[in-house]
Amino acid sequence: MDLEGLLGSLGAGGAVSAAGALSLPAESYGNDAQLEMMWAKKAYDHAEIYFNLISSVDPKFLKLTKVDDQIYTEFKKIFGDMNINVLNPEDLKSEEAKQKWRPFCLQFDGIVEDYNYGTLLRLDCQKDYTEENTIFATRIQFFAVEISRNREGYNNAVYESTSKSKNQKQS
């Protein structure tokens, strides 16, 4: 899917209008394919930036929000038994999971900006974002899982792999 080409076809005025439209609440829209593409592009850009970040900075030093400690504590309290190394999509999307996630997410309304925006989340944290390794989640779910992965060392594999590649290229 060529998101860059689609956005480029909007022209400068269209892109500015699109940026303004993306700040409106979701209830303001119908099923607009062009708008869905812009949301997908925004989610993809976020994922790419995040992956580049954990590839270049030791993840244990990353702070993703002002309330990382609160997110981590609440996540571990409610989802402490969840395998965050390799996520099972059912742990995010099943009806039972939604019953647990809904109150978790809502507690961050007004605390975490755009807490309910759509975001891409890697299923296996040792792999890059690919179609097979990516699930659509809310931003607060992304933060909860990725803060936990960073603190518990699961994202180290990405950082170490990139560091080894850089060292080999320099040698």
UniProtKB/TrEMBL annotation:
Where the record annotates domain Polysaccharide biosynthesis, the positions are 35-159
Sorted alphabetically, the Gene Ontology cellular component annotations on this record are: cytoplasm
Q: Which InterPro entries match?
A: PBDC1-like_dom_sf, PBDC1_metazoa/fungi, Polysacc_synth_dom
- Membrane spanning residue stretches: none
- Cite the Pfam families for this sequence: PBDC1
**Protein name, UniProt field:** Protein PBDC1
